[in-house]
Each structure stands twice: as structure tokens, then as C-alpha cells.
């Protein structure tokens, strides 16, 4: 890091130190690295409502006391959750955001994202960390490491090898959480896509509907759509479509509809093709099935 950047971060740190008492906060611990690019604080804050100040640091905060509902809203940020002891929150450098927070005691690590990590052999990307800004969460390992970092910082300042290793561990742990959250989001997204496909089938049983049509509805290739659809339902899209058509055909035939009308109502323009499909699925042609059903009614 250049000397000029060091100076800039020392200015940011000094500004932060000056802000703490103006917020009515009580700082139990407030220390930083020599450059000012990392600050460790154990602070009690009063309840706040309104527009906060722009903040140049990324922040990892652990609630150690107090709690209640909190809301933050701004560019790329929307949090509406409840703080309580043990809950963690992450925020990236942001312009001023509006909202409110309850009275809180927090253990906070604020750091310059471009100055981390200290003990990684290659650059550490914070891509995706904004995903963590919209929810509070619990993680016993991160909480324990943060408390250990605080104790170490109290004894040795925010520049020891233990401090650097601890922050590195926290960031990697958060990275794994982001990956898991992204996989969950992908899964939920796929579930929604398949729900949309199932709804499309029900709405268009009376139409000529192809696998490609369904795949286009959910923006997937036919091959990928077919694989995911079978994983979810146990059927290929064509088999499921046929199953639903035959289920509706049985209802219509039971109500006394003609074979021709039933065929049209379930997407078959040619009654002979409908009869062949019905026989493959149920072992009888539609007329015989309808007659048998009426006889046994």
C-alpha cells in the first residue's frame, strides 16, 4: 500500500474515532492497525433513526448486548431484521443509508476492502459479500474468532499475526456462507422455474405444447430443462404432459363428453391420435373406458 493511501485511511480512522462520541456511543475498546485500514471496536450505541453517514469501511458486526428491529435502506442495501446477542451483520462501504437501529452493543471489525487479506498468498475477492448485507445471521465460529480478536487487540493492538490470521479466517468463513447462499438461491430459482413450467402445462393442456415451448418459458435449454424437470417430478416433460392430459380426459369422459370433444380439450387435433395415446396410458380406448365407467357408476 502506498504512503498516500495509508494517510487516507488514517484520516478515515481519525474521523471514525471523532464520530463515536457524537453519536452518543460509549466505546469500551477502540483500536486500529497502524495504517488505520482496520479498526476494532467494542461499542454501545443508542437507538438511532434517520439517515446515517457515508462509511468507507466494510464492516462485520457481532451483537453483544441490546437488540430489536433494525432497518437499513439505500443503494443496493435493504435490511429489515432483528438484532439480538449472537447475531452477526455485514455491510460493504456505502453512501448514506436511511433507517433505524435499536440500542445495541456491538463488537465490530471495520476494514478497507482493498487492504485485505493480510495472510493470503493471493488477492482475496469480496465479490458477493453484498449478499450478506440484507440479512442478519448466526455463526458460532465467526463469533468466537471475533471475541478472540478483540481480546488480542486489547493486549497487542490490531496488528498481531493472530489478528491477521483471525480476520483471514472470518473472511473465508463468510465466503463459504456466500457460496452456500448462492447455491440455495439457485435451487430456489430452479424450483420457481419448474413451478412456472408446471403452471404453464395446466393452463395449456388444450394446446399444442412442446418441450421447447416449456423450456423457453423458463429460459432454459430443452436438454437442461428436461433433466431438471425429471429430477423434480420423476417424469420427462412429455410424459408428465401426457399424464395430465389423460387425467383431464378421464374427467371429461366421465362427465359424458364425446371422444372428439375430449380430444380437442386436451390438445389433440386428431381424435385417432388421442385414442392411441389414451389406450397406451390406460390400456383401453376412450370409448371402451367411458362405457365401462358408466356401467360401474
Automatic annotation (TrEMBL):
One of its GO terms (molecular function) is DNA-binding transcription factor activity. Keywords: Coiled coil, DNA-binding, Transcription, Transcription regulation. Residues 184-211 form a coiled coil. Gene3D superfamilies: Homeodomain-like. It comes from the Bacteria. The keyword DNA-binding applies. Residues 195-292 form the HTH araC/xylS-type domain. SMART domains: HTH_ARAC. This is AraC family transcriptional regulator. The lineage of its organism: Bacteria, Pseudomonadati, Pseudomonadota, Gammaproteobacteria, Alteromonadales.
